[in-house]
Structure formats: C-alpha cells, structure tokens
User: Fold this.
Amino acid sequence: MKVSIITATYNSALTVRDTLNCVNEQEHPDIEHIIVDGLSTDKTLQIVQEFGHVSKIISEKDKGIYDAMNKGIEAATGDVVAILNSDDIYVGPKVISAISSIFSDPSVQTSYADLQYVQQYNLNKIVRTWRSGSFNRRNFYYGWMPPHPTFFVRREVYEKVGLFNSSLRSAADYELMLRILVKHEIPTHYIPEVIVKMRSGGMSNASFKSRITANREDRLAWKLNGLEPHFFTLYAKPIRKISQFLIR
Assistant:
C-alpha cells in the first residue's frame, strides 16, 4: 500500500530537517513524500534536496498553507494520504507501517490517533498529550475534534468530499474533518497511541486574538456544511482551546 505524505513548507529551515528525517526513517517500503514549498527565501529547499526519499517537490507561490496542502493532495498517487507539517515528526520508524496495516482493511476509510505537544527546541520534552478517545459523531457537537496531524485519509475520500476550503485561515482542517466525519458520515478508526509530536504553538493557537478568529471560523465551518452546532460547540470549544493555549 502506497502512503502519500504531504508537507507544506515556507521558510522552514529551522525545523524541516527533523520532519524529513522522520519520514526517511520509516520502515514502510512504499512512501511518497511530497514537499509543497511557497518559494522559501531561506535554506528550506536546499535541505529538502539533501533527502533522496522525497518523491516530488512543488515550489511555487501559493495562497496559504491550505492551498499548498491541496496542491499536494492533488499531486498524490498513494492509496492513503497524510499531512505532516514542516515542524512535526512521527514518533518512530514504524508509524507508517502500522497505518498501512490498519488500512489493509477496506472498511477503514480514515484514521486518527493521539498527539504530543513538545517544546519547540526540545522534541523530547513533552508539554502535554492530546488523548483523542474513541470516535462518536455526537462528540463533534460538544467541541471534540481529532488532532489533524494524526488524520490519515484514503485518497478516494478526498475525491468524494473535496479538499481543504482555503478561504478559511485557521479552521480549514477542522472544517474538512467536520465535512468528512459528520456531514458525509465516513467511518474512522481510532488508534489509541501517540503517533505524532507537534512543536508547541501553531497558527490557530498563537494568540488569544487568533483563537477568537479561529472560533468564528469554527462556527462558519458548521454553516458551510449545512449543519447546526450545539450550544457547547460554540462556547465550550473556545474555552477549551484557550485553556490549551495557556498550558503552552
């Protein structure tokens, strides 16, 4: 089974080597690693070109990270597609082999797992762990969502439901998972293990102001899918996410 991993980069020279190393070290024999770069002005592309495992490099101006991710998905030829950000890593070399084994069951259309936030300059220093828990469609109405970097999707699912809505600045990943798991009710499989380490920070949690903006976009995500959010979706979710910001 071929697994396509999409990594969007832009001036990512400080962190992208760790991301490239973790993919290069995977034991799974059939990985397509696609780098989508937004015309970096630092040494990002020089570092990428050091790694022979990289299958494709797309280097051109984009309209933001989700536009770049869409380009990667459109270029992917794997059976299963993953998004691995340029400052995230898989926790070990067996992650993609385990994912491939899970997707050998044709009924598995998507999967997600647990994630660890780590210090920006020390990947071994855990800040906190995101335990996703088993999937229940109803949980989305109470502010739940799976961690997107752990979300693996059959390519045919993207062909069915579409790609990221790049007009959403910070909630495009949330909207896509809402569309897949709630609107279209595509089944998912929970892996009760940490498979990704994410550096603390990130676009949608960088500040209180951006968290408020992201919450507005979360509401819009429901509207775009013709869904009516629960009271707790609108109020419990931002409180939870702001508390996550404070922990960092």
The longest helix spans residues 208-224. The first strand starts at residue 3 and ends at 9.
